[in-house]
Fold these 2 entries.
Entry 1:
Amino acid sequence: MAPRKDGPTKETMNRGAWTQEEDQKLAQCIQIHGAKKWKTVANNSGLNRCGKSCRLRWLNYLRPNIKRGNISDEEEDLIIRLHKLLGNRWSLIAGRLPGRTDNEIKNYWNSHLCKKASHIEEKPETSTAQETIAQDNVVGDNAMLENKDSISGSLDSDVIFNVNEFLDFPTEEPYVFDWVNKFLEIETNN
DNA sequence: AACAGCCACAACCGCCTTAGT
DNA sequence: GACTAAGGCGGTTGTGGCTGT
């Protein structure tokens, strides 16, 4: 590692909850520099925050089209199913839920659904074939993701499906639940 | 009213990946 | 190809608010 340039250090960096004023400054700076160059944004915003912190604040709270709170039953169900399929890949799961962030889903999972899901696990009679399929595919998830440019199937499962269909659906509202329905159809057709 | 315990959520930390030189 | 900085992600922690005693 090269020696660090002078600048705000961990000790001098502003930390903790964001104020309205900071949010405004950040939003203005992102308008100018874009929501990508976080180092530049952090340096030019006048905020004594690191790029990571700015990024997180923008992605989770200031970004347009963010939905806050009130996760619907449908969304909850979708999260549970996606989690079965993808595991703790929060950003991927969030990508299937328009307006929701990975942090929000992660928090929601840890505080609400974790117990709920484990409770469901304890009742094997309620688990369905599609859940079994999902479990199988979680195992091969990494490999599948690496090959997501090609049509691939699960190695150990009888079920063959197109990874692109699972990961590259449009995230506009009506399509999201179609995606789940499509997923469920696999089980129905078996 | 005061306190303790619990819960939800915002933010930070550390690791890994990617892009640039 | 090696190295560095920055971005991205998931895990974890800190804290404020709520509820029960």
Note: The mean pLDDT of chain A is 67.
Entry 2:
Amino acid sequence: MARPRDDDKKRAILIAAIRLFADEGLGASTASIARAANVADGTLFRYFPTKDHLLNELYSELKLSLRARLAPVSHDTSLREQLRSAWDVYIDWGFTEPAAHQVTARLSVSTRISARTRADAAEAFSDVNSRLKAAVANGPLRRHPTAFAGALFAAMADTTLAFIIDTPAERETLTADGFAAFWSAIGRGNSNVEMPRNSQQEKDCIS
Amino acid sequence: MARPRDDDKKRAILIAAIRLFADEGLGASTASIARAANVADGTLFRYFPTKDHLLNELYSELKLSLRARLAPVSHDTSLREQLRSAWDVYIDWGFTEPAAHQVTARLSVSTRISARTRADAAEAFSDVNSRLKAAVANGPLRRHPTAFAGALFAAMADTTLAFIIDTPAERETLTADGFAAFWSAIGRGNSNVEMPRNSQQEKDCIS
Amino acid sequence: MARPRDDDKKRAILIAAIRLFADEGLGASTASIARAANVADGTLFRYFPTKDHLLNELYSELKLSLRARLAPVSHDTSLREQLRSAWDVYIDWGFTEPAAHQVTARLSVSTRISARTRADAAEAFSDVNSRLKAAVANGPLRRHPTAFAGALFAAMADTTLAFIIDTPAERETLTADGFAAFWSAIGRGNSNVEMPRNSQQEKDCIS
Amino acid sequence: MARPRDDDKKRAILIAAIRLFADEGLGASTASIARAANVADGTLFRYFPTKDHLLNELYSELKLSLRARLAPVSHDTSLREQLRSAWDVYIDWGFTEPAAHQVTARLSVSTRISARTRADAAEAFSDVNSRLKAAVANGPLRRHPTAFAGALFAAMADTTLAFIIDTPAERETLTADGFAAFWSAIGRGNSNVEMPRNSQQEKDCIS
DNA sequence: AATGAATGAGCCTTCATTCAT
DNA sequence: AATGAATGAAGGCTCATTCAT
């Protein structure tokens, strides 16, 4: 299939798909998506040869859009601050685009997303992983792949998000406390890093 | 008297449904499930008037089967040991019955499980929640509903499970370290309980 | 099939069938009829080997129940009075048992009632027909089979009934005027019979 | 531009439906209709979203096709001639298109035709009704809604038709005598019009 | 004889995909 | 390239009928 040029159309389809998959589940028909995108039934298939292609591409797109929000790795801030920033970005994404977040969750557990697609998406987060790698170094997870900490990050952020959506008034405290929980989870030694007071206390003791 | 209603048949359908939903997603056809259960197409509908009923009942059943594995609350053991036991049970359930676990995960995010079904299932875990409530009391999550800690428990155990299934050789370490992460996540004061060294340090300071 | 003896049960099924066929059309399921008759699904088929048998037997039964209401032919009353009586009976039947009447109408146009059943039912009205035969003798229908007048009788009574059910307050006038229309329809000379005034008028003229 | 919507196809489906509903009753499957119309199963549902829609539209179509045969109201002919013409048209319709007529009869008593559809169809015959209104003015039906005479017209024509189909050789006499019966049924004064002898008799009296 | 569980053909409808225009 | 009509496989569900108890 000669790659059709109208990129807006593709975008429209993807956006419509998010809304419909969020509202009706992944079973939403291609026809309904096409209609919502103001596009003919058949046109959808010029951009996505198959519904599975649409699903996979949407998954990638969604992951990428999240990824795009993440600040580039900076060396001016502490590890904790960098991860906290990523955490906030993630929460914010899920909060401001609940449909996107929900569809991502559904696609994540779907049979129809290929291993390849998953792997590609994971790779996009490699730099976040490198931060995690450092953060995990002294903690109880140090002997396991960094991806473990990464998965924990996502799982805990998702959980936090679900409660924020349920109780928006608690957004700030949930975000902060959720991150605190995550930070505690992955590192022991890290706590020292973030709390120089401890060493100070020790000093105090000494004195 | 007519042929008595065969309860094994219902069981067979449920079991077949687990396998097929795990293999093909929740879209697996009722016909394929019936076939796998060695039952006629129509028979399935004598036990579950609707596919949605099957889905909901399966969800309840799965949650209950997990719940049944959990030891009753004991007062002889520490909070940490009790939660660790629940953690191990959860991991073991997911490891020995991966299909059941995966289907539970899919049902959990499905549109087709009613709020009622979810609520009923949640209620079955109320005693685990009471343990969590105590565990959370001094931690950073203390100001949030206990359900938050509960959700974190499940999310982190699921994540751990995924890595165990990927690397069965690391089952024991992953289980232990995953739990350590969880335990750290929910409690600050708790860590004192498991790490008397801290108080010793304090003593040292004093001296 | 050894004829089962419990005749009440058969009756119950037939009665339930009338209600359900009236409420839901002839598509009402045998199971729903059995339930309404307080009888097991399979029991129905001991009395009626087939749904078509039930349909046909119900048709016969309904026609017979109507027939049973008709007064036996009397020689004390005029032709007009006899037919008027039959007319009233028919209207009354339809009015007091609308379900029975409606189901009869539906069965009458159904593919599933055999020619044999129809013929048998028609035969039951042979004596009414003999009355009609006489009434028709001098009218415009005299050259056609009496069944024609009979069919007209039923068709016109049904029509009248429909309007009575719609406007019960007009029951009496509709009944009378409907019959007047019928009587006019089938006979010319008959009108003399019902209006002795005419001859009187003639006499008056003479005088 | 996509393939234009083929209106012949809709027509073909409607025609096939008439045949099949006539042959097998309204229970004939949409699949069999589609096949008979040389159209794919799914195509039928592009034209009729539901079997009920098909049923209702068919009913309207059938009534309209009958209506189309009726001559426009003329003022050159007597009331009797106008109604006789309508009668003949009706009979002819039923005789030349027995399937259409039969299906109309079945649809008329079906639960699946909406009140709306019925009302719309009835309205199409308003001008016939206005003729009937005049014809009824002096007869025994004068105190009832014109629709009563209209229903009688249809009922009596249907009955006549049934006998014509049974004995085609008598078509002409049945048509004429059936109408005579109808004409007598609805009007008393009308009979004067067709039988000047009466007034002559009166004159005779006077003399 | 009565029961009601079991059956499987069949029904209406949906939908991803193709293809004539 | 875009359209949307057409397709037919498949899905969920119903139901008359059979048959073990």
Note: Chain A touches chain D through two residues (CB under 8 Å).
